[in-house]
């Protein structure tokens, strides 16, 4: 078996060493008569499958980064330990994809050099382990975080055209080692299997755009207005969540609505707090160590005002943006206290922005008292009532009667034969399709979707025509003047044809050149 032109013996020897974990020179390999067996081919196919499996997992990891702060909060509630688990996941995924990619490149280079694919048993064991780890990760995602499958579906609307180009390009490059193997192998059965499979895959890829839809395939003049921004607990990437500092930062980001969570203290004062316990966002364990596990509503307002609601932000750094805060912002963060709803309404009134809130905990025995206390503060604050967006479902009819000008926002889709038409809905972004968003927009129903942090997701929802989005990253989305991409259908069709034709010609060239 002669070495192909341009493949020196030293390179072939090095490749054999890395792939087979044995120091066998190309010359000795020839004398020993080592050849690629059916078993070796099976292991190469397994390697290729594992690489694709980890590549798909990497794609999922990048998609779920939009929602990973929720997972960090969930883990804190369970383990009482704050850690940026997205960093752990990214590092682990990078290790797995790098390992399988390096092995795949080695195998392809060996094939082009005409060397046998003798994968070492250690690599085989590690590949099996990689496949099991990724399979376990997918299983865990499906069980504990099933809504992310819907996120993946939405992501394809943003990445579909680029994935198509990338996959077609990758499969086109694979034609070179495939052609080399086809002309070298004496196994007719393997040829008959591989070539039709490869051709079928390429034909499917060439035709895949026929089944692809994206709201961002439209003419420029059809683009809906940019969605308004709703600050999720303020601007939590720039300041401690649900604090006055966070509210002011959100105002600086040009948000139109401040979204927050309200609880009511033991002595009847509504205040801003998301968690039922105070441990994540205050120093309650240091100030009241014996009461730290109590519900937030068990503390009176005097006790709550003793707590530091900002230093945790600098210590735990819930977002990477904390590292880039100015010295003045860091100082302000350490001075934050739990704000009352009255204080937040005053800032909202002065800044001319709306305020939208949940009232927690919904299952509390004194929930009606919470509603009454909250409504009383709103009515006494002097804020124009249309600037208040009411989310809680409990005792909603009572609120409508006492303050009919408050805007009612519903956390559900409209029902058939709805007695009173919905004007505002607030839903997870996974719960509405582009078609539903367009229909609601035509029916003059305001749609707010949460939580939207990544520009790719914001772009898809922008193209769909959503009214507003709740976000942690108001400082990022504020700067977007246009969706990440917008393609007229004619341009997309031209790109599709050019890519497919170029791929076909490259594959044809590979098989003719290596014949």
From TrEMBL:
TM regions (residue ranges): 41-65, 85-113, 125-143, 163-181, 193-212, 493-514
A molecular-function term among this protein's GO annotations: glycerophosphodiester phosphodiesterase activity
GO CC field: plasma membrane
Keywords assigned by UniProt, alphabetized: Glycoprotein, Hydrolase, Membrane, Transmembrane, Transmembrane helix
Membrane topology: Multi-pass membrane protein
Gene3D superfamilies in alphabetical order: Phosphatidylinositol (PI) phosphodiesterase (3.20.20.190)
Domain GP-PDE span(s) in chain numbering: 227-481
Keyword Glycoprotein: yes
Alphabetical GO biological process terms: lipid metabolic process
Tree of life domain: Eukaryota
Signal peptide: none
Cellular localisation: Membrane
InterPro entries reported in the protein's UniProt record: GP_PDE_dom (IPR030395), PLC-like_Pdiesterase_TIM-brl (IPR017946)
Family designation: Belongs to the glycerophosphoryl diester phosphodiesterase family.
Protein name per UniProt: GDPD2 inositolphosphodiesterase
């Amino acid at each position: 078996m002669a070495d192909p032109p341009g493949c020196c013996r030293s390179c072939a020897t090095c490749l054999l060493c890395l792939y087979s974990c044995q120091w066998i020179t190309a010359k000795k390999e020839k004398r020993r008569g080592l050849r690629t067996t059916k078993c070796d081919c099976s292991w190469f196919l397994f390697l290729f499958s594992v690489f694709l499996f980890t590549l798909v997992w990497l794609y999922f990891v990048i998609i779920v980064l939009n929602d990973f702060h929720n997972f960090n909060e969930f883990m804190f509630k369970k383990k009482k330990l704050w850690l940026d688990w997205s960093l752990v996941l990214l590092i682990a995924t990078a290790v797995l994809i790098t390992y399988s990619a390096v092995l795949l490149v080695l195998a392809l280079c060996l094939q082009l050099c005409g060397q046998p694919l003798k994968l070492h048993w250690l690599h085989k064991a590690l590949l099996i382990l990689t496949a099991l780890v990724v399979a376990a990760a997918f299983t865990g995602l499906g069980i504990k975080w099933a809504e992310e499958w819907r996120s993946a579906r939405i992501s394809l609307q943003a990445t579909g055209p680029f994935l198509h180009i990338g996959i077609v390009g990758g499969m086109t490059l694979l034609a070179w080692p495939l052609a080399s193997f086809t002309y070298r192998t004496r196994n007719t059965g393997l040829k008959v299997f591989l070539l039709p499979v490869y051709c079928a895959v390429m034909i499917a890829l060439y035709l895949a755009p026929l089944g692809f839809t994206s709201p961002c395939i439209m003419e420029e003049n059809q683009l809906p207005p940019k969605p308004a921004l709703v600050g999720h607990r303020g601007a939590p990437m720039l300041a401690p969540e649900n604090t006055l500092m966070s509210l002011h930062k959100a105002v600086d980001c040009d948000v139109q609505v401040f979204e927050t969570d309200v609880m009511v203290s033991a002595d009847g004062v509504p205040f801003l707090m998301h968690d039922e316990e105070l441990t994540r966002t205050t120093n309650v364990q240091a100030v009241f160590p014996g009461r730290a596990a109590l519900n937030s509503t068990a503390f009176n307002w005097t006790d709550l005002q003793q707590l530091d609601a900002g230093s945790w932000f600098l210590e735990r750094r819930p977002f990477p943006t904390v590292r880039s805060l100015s010295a003045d912002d860091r100082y302000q963060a350490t001075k934050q206290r739990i704000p009352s709803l009255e204080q937040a309404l005053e800032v909202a009134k002065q800044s001319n922005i709306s305020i939208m809130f949940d009232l927690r905990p919904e299952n509390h025995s004194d929930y009606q008292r919470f509603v009454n206390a909250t409504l009383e503060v709103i009515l006494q604050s002097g804020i124009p009532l249309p600037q208040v967006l009411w989310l809680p479902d409990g005792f909603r009819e009572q609120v409508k009667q006492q303050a009919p000008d408050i805007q009612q926002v519903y956390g559900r889709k409209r029902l058939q034969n709805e007695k009173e038409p919905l004007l505002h809905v607030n839903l997870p972004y996974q719960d509405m399709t582009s078609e539903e968003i367009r229909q609601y927009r035509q029916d003059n129903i305001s749609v707010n979707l949460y939580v939207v942090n990544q520009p790719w997701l914001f772009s898809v929802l922008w193209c769909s025509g959503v009214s507003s989005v709740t976000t942690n990253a108001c400082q990022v989305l504020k700067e977007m003047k246009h969706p990440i991409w917008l393609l007229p259908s004619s341009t997309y069709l031209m790109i599709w044809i050019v890519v497919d034709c170029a791929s076909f010609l490259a594959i044809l060239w590979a098989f003719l050149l290596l014949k």
